[in-house]
Amino acid sequence: MPDAHARVQPEARAPEQLQESGAQASARADLTRIRAEEAELIFARFSRDDAWRLGSRMREAAAARSLPVVIGIVVGQQRVFHAALDGAVPDNDAWLERKTRAVLHFEQSSLGVGALFRSLGRVYEQEARLDPNEVAANGGVFPVRIEGVGVVGAVGVSGLPQVEDHAFVVEQLREFLAEA
After folding, report:
1. Which residues pair with 84 in a beta bridge?
2. pTM of the predicted model as reported, rounded to 2 decimal places
3. Cβ–Cβ < 8 Å for 72, 81
4. Where are the domains of the chain?
5. Which of 97, 109, 113, 164 could pair with 160 as two cysteines, CB 3.0-4.6 Å apart?
6. d(Cα 95, Cα 18) in Å, to the nearest integer?
7. Where are the alpha helices (DSSP H) in the chain?
């Protein structure tokens, strides 16, 4: 039996483990920012008409910037808005579906799901107990959360690098909610 009073020696760490700690710290900072966005971007109500207006606004903004993205909004399990812009490919639709499933499962943004796993030093694809071919923790889809109700759907894009997908959705949600 080990001596309870023995001095515990710090473990020697390999350079890749030190980098992982840096990655975890970065992921924790990302997660803090993402959680603040999720706390900020809450709807008082969200109808199918709201989904159409939000989706149309997102499509206009993406087209004005020539972004090669697909845009989707779901309420429950029903897709209520979808648009594919020039340059988007069918694979973008598949990614959008996978990221949407993550949001509906975890009730947080898809980028937040990935950041949560990274902040814990875990690999989502190995430890989520979900098929990574069906549910993806990559950025670009955000929960549609109604105050006092919770998550009722998701809004997202796919076609850019994941952080840019996420940033575009957050920007569009902020502008939409500011106009409401």
Report:
1. 70
2. 0.86
3. yes
4. 15-179
5. 164
6. 32
7. 15-40, 48-64, 90-106, 110-119, 124-127, 162-179
